[in-house]
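Lab notebook: predicted structure, single chain.

Context: the supervisor wants predicted structures on file for every construct in the current expression panel, including those that have not yet been purified. This is the next one on the list. No modifications to the sequence; it matches the entry in the shared construct table.
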Amino acid sequence: MATYSDQLRHRREFLRAGALALGGMTLPQLPAAQAASKPSDTSVIVFWMWGGPSQLETFDLKPNAPSEYRGPFRPIATNVPGLDICEIFPKLAQVADKYSIIRSIHHEMASHNDGSIEMLTGKTPSRIDPTSTAVSEHPDLGMITSRMRGPGPGGIPSYIGIPTKPFMTRPQYLGVSHSAYETGDPSVENFRPANLKLDAGLNASRLADRQGLMTQFDRFRHQVDVAGSRDGVDQFHHQAFELLSSPRVANAFDLSQEPPQLRDRYGRTLWGQSCLLARRLAQSGVSLITIDALAPEFGLKRYFSWDDHLIPAYDWSLGPAMQYRALHLDPALSTLIDDIHQQDLDRKIVVIAMGEFGRTPRISHGSGMQGRDHWPQAMSVLVSGGGWKMGQVIGATNSKAEYPAERPLTPQDLLASVYRHLGIDPHHGLLDFGGRPQPILPSGEPIRELM
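Prediction complete. Output recorded below exactly as produced.
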């Protein structure tokens, strides 16, 4: 039989776990904090180009650089005078007045996971991992947003990953409830995310299972007698049930409601339908959506990421790899940007296309192929929407795209701009596992040219 001290210890452990799951706050404190951080109905879509897209083959071409730097493609003019991009993106060139390019983002993390952690959390990893197996010590921007803003209307999740979530970030001291909800591939026929169907929005047997689990939770809640926290627990219970039973949630995922012609414009591909689904989710109240822009489903697995090393054994060469991805990215991203503006959502939604770093300015050659290695010292990021100033280039690199030459900016500056759009104070402190307050961002200011 458990002693009274054992019961108290288990109760303390349960309450401590609950506090960690809520970001170091007690249940009654949570709704007030979320309400304070939610001044407007805004959303962010991150088109996450894991692997590190080359700045010289996307948005910062150097046609006058020596041949070993400038790459296989030429720049083309856009509908904004002076804003040139890579020739493999003709549709993006037609909507350049609806986005801006930041060419001077830089940091020091040269491995994939460390660079991703820097870009997605704003925190520099304490231990550098050259093998790219690191996981974050701090939550990413979606987890922070989930914690600070709470669920959207009708119980819709605050943070969603399409088709999956970034694999190198963890919610850590915020708790697993703030991880991204993963949708699966929206380009498959009769797409439905896991556990959701149309009509009432739920598989009845799964809902019954969850009702049983919540009943068990209620029983345990009464057993431990969470003094002073009953209202917060009841709200948590209500939000969980609302998510599981909400027709609004089901409708947000229903791509069949979109005109077939619009779905065709996006492209009936993983990236195309992911961008369309992201717009629907943002429109429905999801605060933060990531699109995992890997491409194993495309069939040519050698081009699955943006990691364009010279790899003759894999038949992986920079030029064909970029052309292949552009066939999918160009219609998907350009239509997303145009669609958001056409539907007057460009003040509500911000779109960001980025990876974890850029690529080496000097090209590697071998066996008739080309490649570029990791290069965090300079990278380009595309941003659109948010009521921000569009149709401009912010910052510049030197003549070989090696380093920022004008307006050097950091991942923290970019994230500070995102948090401002979401109404989140980046100086707010969240308690870590040791009870120490961790600021959402350690540094960074919103990029003034956008505001």
